[in-house]
Amino acid sequence: MTGLTPAQQKVFSFVHDYAIRHGYSPSHEEVCRQFGYRSPNSVCKHLKQLVQLGYPQTPRNKKRALDLIAVHAGAVAVSFLGIVAAGTPIEAVGIPELIEVPENFLGHGNNFALRVRGDSMIEDGIRDGDILIITRQSHAENGQTVIALVRGEATVKKFYHRGNEIELRPANSRMEPLQERAEDVEIVGIVMGLLRNYRERKH
């Protein structure tokens, strides 16, 4: 199955999670509100691309935006390495454990998983308790969501390289970005997707 772009992954994850939570898929208007789109055309563009990739299909005689169809991708075991902060940096704890994830969530190369603690990425749909799927690499493009080590402590943030400084930006309007010297920041990997279990949530 062809991999998704970050934008496509976010739309697919929202539709998938919404369908699990409510028992039916979201409308175009609900997708627009979730991502702040002013025009339904942006939603239609992403949905059309997802249909072409074989993920969702537009339902017949329904008011909802789309139905999900099965994603024909195998499960792959990756290393689950502990907890990463979506707040202030904390140490990622090594745990000798494997977790199975959909194959289409994985990037090329070495992949691993971390559980999120904190809410600094909540506006990007990353919640406390989610499991992030990460492809290990030492570089990132501006705007990508990364796992970074800041003087040895792990955090998940959006990455921006500005001259001799690195900005690690939260997706939470109540929080300030981290401004760090480039030599103090090590990129561990790029976030490719997330897993969420609603049955474990109490709210």
How would you describe the overall organization of this protein?
- The strands form 2 sheets. Strands 4-3-5-6-11-7-8-9-10 form a 9-stranded mixed sheet, with helices on one face.
- Residues 58-65 and 67-73 have low confidence and may be disordered.
- It starts with 5 loop residues before the first helix and ends in an 8-residue tail after the last strand.
- It is built from 3 helices and 11 strands.
- Helix 1 (6-22) packs across helix 3 (40-53) and helix 2 crosses helix 3.
- Helix content is 19%, strand content 34%.
Number of strands: 11
Summarize model confidence as the mean pLDDT. Answer: 77
Shape: globular
Identify low-pLDDT runs: 58-65, 67-73
**DSSP summary: helix tally:** 3
What is the spatial order of strands in the main beta sheet? 4-3-5-6-11-7-8-9-10
Query: First CA to last CA: what distance?
Result: 34 Å
Derived from helix and strand composition plus strand pairing, the structural class reads alpha+beta
Order of helices and strands: HHHEEEEEEEEEEE
Helix content estimate: 10-25%
Largest sheet: 9 strands, mixed
Question: Approximately how much beta-strand content do the residues carry?
Answer: 25-35%
Rg estimate, integer Å: 17 Å
